[in-house]
């Protein structure tokens, strides 16, 4: 069988089958297409503005390494006029994070970007190894997730930047959508599906240059990029990245959502983007979602040219409607020829003088949508919808040897001792609780 030509240039031999749409491409066309799609997402959502200083959340893994490489390439090619720096968080996991940070240090030299490393030990007085030793491997990802999100903001405050970009890809977003659906946490969809996760005030302050260290703008330029394509890009560009999984993550709930997403992708390649698009659509139906999404909003029609959710590869086409009409016509013909059996259910007679049962509509209590109001933690001053932020609550439990303390269940007399380390650190990096 003769080799297949590239579907774009029709000249080179096709070497890559795109996981997103099964398009056969040669190596140069795949790299150019991948970079063009990221550029389209950046420009369509107006993620950057000239003169902005942007911190890349670098872990040494494939996602953050590809993100740093692509942003450097696009910034030079299209003259974004932004300054890129690397920001790494050291969770304190021996045999994992210490090795991956060596990769980040090499990336900093390769891409000629300044690197800042901020550790859990200096921020919270705990490393993840110590946390796991205290709480075990069940639920430790909750601590790490909360600490890491706030650590990135505090690192950005230390660098004096108002914008942090992360390497979250389409698979990550789809997994998060499923996790929130399985937990019944729909209000969180507006933040997890939005390509920009900050309030309008934060974006305005970032563009005007007014410092606001408790509210950092976040964006996900790789939101519509498949994880498999990120790996292909890193491989063919011969990027230096760390590929070992966190030694504490196998017990995480996300693993179940990831397995489901991968199984769906095998059956239907567009399933990942379909789940992302469904999450975006549901997020728009939640009251107050526009405020939580920020000015970037939950992107609409931003991926059509890039082969995303709204395109023929990702969503639906006119041909699907024609196929549906054809199937409906076949069903009608089958019914006319007696090939269809109607199934009915018999009603159970109600006993005489028995009270009528209330209908479902009359007994159902409508569920009120939760509209969160963002304020500041009364202890450390960090942006939070609660009086005491999650980080301070978790630290309270750790310091009391009660790791399962619920949010808000803290003792007032221990406020100063349980969060003094955190508050001092936040003051050092410029975060105020006033």
List the helices and strands and how they pair.
Elements: E1 16-17, E2 24-25, H1 27-44, E3 53-57, H2 62-78, E4 83-90, H3 97-111, E5 115-119, H4 120-124, H5 128-135, H6 140-159, E6 163-165, H7 170-183, H8 189-193, H9 200-208, E7 217-219, H10 227-236, H11 254-267, H12 271-284, H13 289-293, H14 318-336, H15 360-363, E8 375-376, E9 383-384, H16 390-399, H17 415-428
Parallel strand pairs: 3-4, 3-6, 4-5, 6-7
Antiparallel strand pairs: 1-2, 8-9
Helix pairs in contact: 2-10, 7-11, 7-12, 16-17
Portion in strands? 5-15%
**Which architecture of the largest domain per CATH?**
3-Layer(aba) Sandwich
CATH homology group of the largest domain: HUPs
| Helix content estimate | 40-55%
Largest sheet: 5 strands, parallel
Strand arrangement, major sheet:
5-4-3-6-7
**What is the CATH class designation of the largest domain?**
Alpha Beta
Low-confidence stretches: 199-213, 294-320, 338-347, 402-418
How far apart, in Å, are the first and last alpha carbons?
71 Å
Number of domains: 3
Structural class: alpha/beta
User: What integer value in Å does the Rg equal?
Assistant: 25 Å
Mean pLDDT: 77
Q: What's the CATH topology label of the largest domain?
A: Rossmann fold
Q: Number of helical segments?
A: 17
Order of helices and strands: EEHEHEHEHHHEHHHEHHHHHHEEHH
Describe the structure.
This protein is an alpha/beta fold. The protein has 3 domains: 257 residues, 3-Layer(aba) Sandwich (Rossmann fold); 45 residues, no CATH class; 59 residues, no CATH class. The protein is 46% helix and 7% strand. The chain contains 17 helices and 9 strands. The longest helix has 20 residues. It is globular, with a radius of gyration of 25 Å. About 16% of the residues have low confidence. GO terms for molecular function: nucleotidyltransferase activity; tRNA binding. Its EC number is 2.7.7.-.
